[in-house]
Amino acid sequence: MKLPRWPRRVFAQLLLSQTVVTVGVTAVTAGLFLAPVSNELDHDAMQRALSIAQATATDEAIARAAEARDSATVQRNAEQIRLATGASFVVVTDLAGIRLSHTDPGRIGHRVSTDPEPALSGRSVTAIQDGTLGRTARGKVPLRTADGRIVGEVSVGISDDSIRRRLLKMLTGILLCAGAGLAAGTVATLALARRLKRRTHNIALADISALLVEREAMLHGIREGMVALDEHGRVRIANDEAVRLLGLPEDSTGRPITEVLPPGRLADVLTGRITGTDLPAVRDDRVLVVNRMATAGHGAVVTLRDRTELESLVRELDTTRSLTEALRAQDHEHANRMHTLLGLLELGRHEQAVAFISEQSGSHAVVAGRIAEQVRDPHVAALLAGKTAVAAERGVRLLLAPAAHLPDAVVDARALVTVLGNLIDNAVDAVEGGGRVEVSLAAAGSTLLLQVADSGPGVPEELREQVFEEGWTSKDAPAHRPRGLGLAMVRRLVERTGGRIVLDAGPLGGARFTVELPEALLTTQLVEA
């Protein structure tokens, strides 16, 4: 015979398991309740039999008849008592244990079937015993005369059938209560199973385990960060990429996101205080694109994309475009100069042609030579030379302060180029179309001080902290990338190295950014320089 298979669905397993448990608990409870009830009924029957026996033993007429062995009188009185009390039998014996009364008159004159000695010795006895009338609850007492002499025994029995009838009457109520409890438990189990069926989408238990394994592999295998938050903003799940991008501690699960992230735009986006799609945010030196989607349980799922490399490529593209435009303008200017030179030669003004060539070639060489003399680090010098050319094509004079000096001892040239390049770009944007930008560099031991000042409109004092927030900008964002990230990234880079950045009013009438970078220079190389 083929045994039925255990159901695979979660709700079916729950329904079957809970039904079995409910039936078992109900049966055990009913059994545990019936056991003491049966014992209590036996005890009550024995006490009732004892009470009838004691009342019978106080009848002096029965005692005198028993002493005189007048069985007819004893039988008549005993039967009256039996009928009046509903007892199964009332047996009176003499001192030898010979019956003087019995329900069956044919047994009078015979010795009782149970031991009469305890009662004849003066003790009252209760017991459940088997006799000629079957199993009964018995009470036995000594039969005494008025002067206290023991002249026999009185034994009263309550039939076991009457006890069982009482138990059956109580059993009906007990079973009804048990049935009601079983029905309620079954209904509750069915309701719970139906709810679980809806919540689990009727999925099999084995599939849940497989889905969990697949989910873990998917979450930790994708190259995008993913964070799940509950309705209180606590971290429920964070995959490996999210931990890396956000720099979350190992014990972040179960903690509010505001505890594991510093205050700022990134925390505001994750908690939903800032809404939108593809929101840019900065974490340390990384540019992240964040999307937040609310879930049915009032929680949220947040996805994170690392845009740092793309942002760097976009910035390089912007620089390349600017250089291309600068080269195109220089080519046009060079053509004009060549035409001028050709005209001077055709007019026979050779001395003026020589002077014109010397003047044009010397101006660019002087600028490049001054930068190389003051800035020994090749990366920063190249940045300043390129930015000077681009700024010139945009009608902006980018100057290096006369006292500026930077030795070839920069610890992290890439970070310094990022900081200085962003500050110069912002300054050039502020004065585009005609203005001046001045850059100052100074070394104090291992600390580097740099300033970028412009002649633009400046920044109002109440907005000088807000300009460092991610996403804040006073310009229209281009189509290929969002604005409002450069200064935020600069501030994070500076603060990560233990430095500080300050924005105030500069000597040129516009804004001035002052950056202090401790441990940015190698002191041994600085001494050699």
Automatic annotation (TrEMBL):
Pfam families: HATPase_c, PAS, sCache_3_2, SPOB_a. It is found in: Cell membrane. Its EC number is 2.7.13.3. GO terms for molecular function: ATP binding; phosphorelay sensor kinase activity. It catalyses: ATP + protein L-histidine = ADP + protein N-phospho-L-histidine. GO terms for biological process: regulation of DNA-templated transcription. Keywords: ATP-binding, Cell membrane, Kinase, Membrane, Nucleotide-binding, Phosphoprotein, Transferase, Transmembrane, Transmembrane helix, Two-component regulatory system. Residues 391-521 form the Histidine kinase domain. It is a multi-pass membrane protein. Its main location: membrane. Signal peptide: none annotated. The chain crosses the membrane at residues 170-193. Coiled coil: none annotated. It is an enzyme of class 2 (transferase). This is histidine kinase. It comes from Streptomyces rubellomurinus (strain ATCC 31215). The lineage of its organism: Bacteria, Bacillati, Actinomycetota, Actinomycetes, Kitasatosporales.
